[in-house]
Amino acid sequence: MSGTSQNPIVRLLQKMRLEPILVILDLIRFGMGALVLVLIGRTPAISHRSLSSLLVRTRGRFHDRVGRLLAALYPPYHFPRRSGVLGSLAPKDLQEINQQLDSKGYYVFPERIPAPVCDRIAEKTRSLDALLCADELTEGTRLQKYDPLRPEAPKYLIDGDDAFDMPEIQGLIRDLSLLEVAQNYLRAKPILTGVGFWWSTAVKKAADESVGQKYHFDMERIKWIMFFIYLTDVDEGHGPHCFIEGSHRAGAIPPELLSKGYARISDDETAKYFPKEKHKEFVGRRGTIIAEDSRGLHKGKPPTDGDRLLICLEFSSSTFGAMKRYKLRAIRDPELAPAVRAYPRIYSNFDLSPLARSQLRT
User: Fold this and answer.
1) How many other C-beta atoms are found inside a 10 Å radius of the C-beta of residue 144?
2) In a domain, 32, yes or no
3) Cα–Cα–Cα angle for 18, 19, 25, rounded to 5 degrees
4) I need a surface site. Which of 190, 196, 197, 254 has the fewest CB within 10 A?
5) What is the CATH number of the domain that holds 141?
6) pLDDT band at residue 12, thresholds of 50, 70 and 90?
7) Is 20 contained in some domain?
8) pLDDT, tens digit (0-9, with 9 covering 90-100), for 235-294
9) Residue 19 covered by a domain
10) How far is Cα 286 from Cα 116, in angstroms, rounded to an integer?
11) Radius of gyration (Cα) for the chain, nearest Å?
12) Count of domains observed in the chain
């Protein structure tokens, strides 16, 4: 989106106070992209950019309206009442969670993933190649295994396909308590549209913009919810996740900040518009789960005392937007196969290997 404001034609139209024309053009490109998505399952880049533009130009109101349309087109699944990592959620529990997500944009669950599960995942990451990310590194050029004794970059990003190949993570993506919270917030059948899985290291003390250590807001979908899960203990010195309460709501982020698009925003800038009590910093033991609408302003603080491992799962009501497909190499968790068969839309953003397909048939 930040590139849109650099277009000389767009700047001219803005100077001429013809913003409605820009909105109409974005709506046309969005509509064309929606048709292409239905026909071939992909969103054209120009339509994705228009989606981001509409978030800025309408301050989120367009996304809210289309989100309601998607809820009507894809009404929620009827999940059986079963317990999961979030316990057994009664209707009143779901209502309380949803009310806070709607009003504040986040919810920290009292239940945690068991520590041994977190430790197993963390240990498995040591054998995986990770993408080194930092302001001073060229994007996508260096792969290296995470070594806590010799970190070389502030972020070690693990490939999503590697993440989904772990039985522990497969157990999370078919967990009905997580899925129920996701679809309750979306008011629609959820689709697993993204995963982020990375080590944040204490190699740098200053915030690194490229790895999300300054405030920013996401713009890649129409309506979505994130689950941020700590896989290591996180205190003030281990890179806690931060969020500005209520900033996910339509009109909450002022135009001065929205117009920055994907650019990072300093703490001083956010302090001008949001009081201190709205700046939330989440600490917690490993296994802590935070649900969040990352349309709001958020960041990860740079670790100073030790490294942090985090995974975030994104569920959306549509794949319109960024094209991020994943490969399911094999079914490692025995309960994933029946979940894929029962709730196909949730897993429609996966390409299945021949082995995974054969496992689904048995």
Assistant:
1) 14
2) no
3) 100
4) 254
5) 2.60.120.620
6) low
7) no
8) 999 999 999 999 999 999 999 999 888 889 999 999 999 999 999 999 999 999 999 999
9) no
10) 10
11) 20
12) 1
Non-local CB neighbours of 141 within 8 Å, separated by 6+ positions: none
Domain that holds residue 114: 58-361
Phi, psi of 262 (to 5 degrees): -80, 0
Tokens linked to 213:
């250590």
| Alpha-carbon distance values, 86 to 8, 41, 173 (Å) | 50, 33, 13
- Say how many C-beta atoms besides its own lie within 10 A of residue 126's C-beta: 12
Closest-CA residue to 46 (of 7, 94, 95): 7
What whole-number distance in Å separates Cα of residue 240 and Cα of residue 187? 29
Sheet holding 298-300, edge to edge: 279-282, 241-244, 298-300
pLDDT tens digits for range 69-91: 999 999 999 999 878 999 999 99
Domain contains 52: no
User: How far is it, in rounded angstroms, from Cα 71 to Cα 69?
Assistant: 5
Per-residue pLDDT, 18: 64
Q: What is the 3-state secondary structure (H, E, C) of the chain?
A: CCCHHHCHHHHHHHHCCCHHHHHHHHHHHHHHHHHHHHHHCCCCHHHHHHHHHHHHHCCCHHHHHHHHHHHHHCCCCCCCCCCECCECCCHHHHHHHHHHHHHHCEEEEEEECCHHHHHHHHHHHCCCEEEEECCCCCCCCCEEECCCCCCCCCEEEECHHHHHCCHHHHHHHCCHHHHHHHHHHHCCCCEEEEEEEEEECCCCCCCCHHHCCCEECCCCCCCEEEEEEECCCECCCCCCEEEECCCCCCCCCCHHHHCCCCCCECHHHHHHHCCHHHEEEECECCCEEEEECCCCCEEECCCCCCCEEEEEEEEECCCCCCCCCEEECCCCCCCHHHHHHHCCCCCCCEEECHHHHHHHHC
**Do the beta carbons of residue 333 and residue 167 sit within 8 Å?**
yes
Tell me the whole-structure pTM to 2 decimals: 0.93
